[in-house]
Amino acid sequence: MRRRVVLPLASAGAVVASLAVAVPAQAHGYVSGPPSRQALCAQGRVPDCGQIRYEPQSVEGPKGLRSCSAGIGQFAVLDDDARGWPATPVGSSVTFTWTNTARHATSNWEYWIGGTRLAVVDGGGRQPDATVSHTVNLGGWSGRQKVLAIWNIADTANAFYSCVDLQVGTGGTPTPTTPTPSPSPTRTPTPAPTTPAPGGTWTAGQAYRVGDQVTYGGAAYRCVQAHTALPGWEPPNVPALWARL
Description:
This is Chitin-binding protein. This protein is mainly beta. Helices cover 8% and strands 32% of the residues. The strands form 4 sheets. Strands 2, 3, 5, 6, 8 and 9 form a 6-stranded mixed sheet that branches. Strands 1-4-7 form a 3-stranded antiparallel sheet, with no helix packed on it. A hairpin with a 2-residue loop joins strand 11 and strand 12 (219-223). It starts with 8 loop residues before the first helix and ends with a strand.
């Protein structure tokens, strides 16, 4: 006769609970322009970033933090100020653009340099668009600065964090200068051949430029924002990046 093994309900519940805790959070949003540190990693412009390269939109933690990584160990590279993050040149103001892969109801957005809050934008508890832009005044600041951008969610205790490195005071329109004519004849250089836009089927890991066209699921799409494709960013899922033709 075969013996039956009965698993106690309490033990089964503990197993289910442990499995539920192990499920990772879903993707949400990050600052894509000027490129935040996680955006630079996703674009491959900063190497050896680890896991953040594949999920720049997942830097989520409790509200009130002041760290680029939201205290997430696997994203700790974002807190390393000595890593040589490229700084975007800007003038006395800058427009930050969020790319939202999950459009949560929003309490507000905040922008900080150190302990100074530069700006707060009310979200009104509403669901934002797939992309959201805010222009922030940088008057009184100059040189290299790290801006911490925070997206505070209305119906949870969490927020999303992005650090953006800027070179303030160098983003104005340069004064045109008259070039000194060369005393000797110069040969007109041969134009460099242009690289054809990626075509064919949309592919994760491919870098796309504005205007590139791909097919996915039997439909054609045109890129409207330069980016490096990630799993989950298929054209039908991210209208901020692709327009259907």
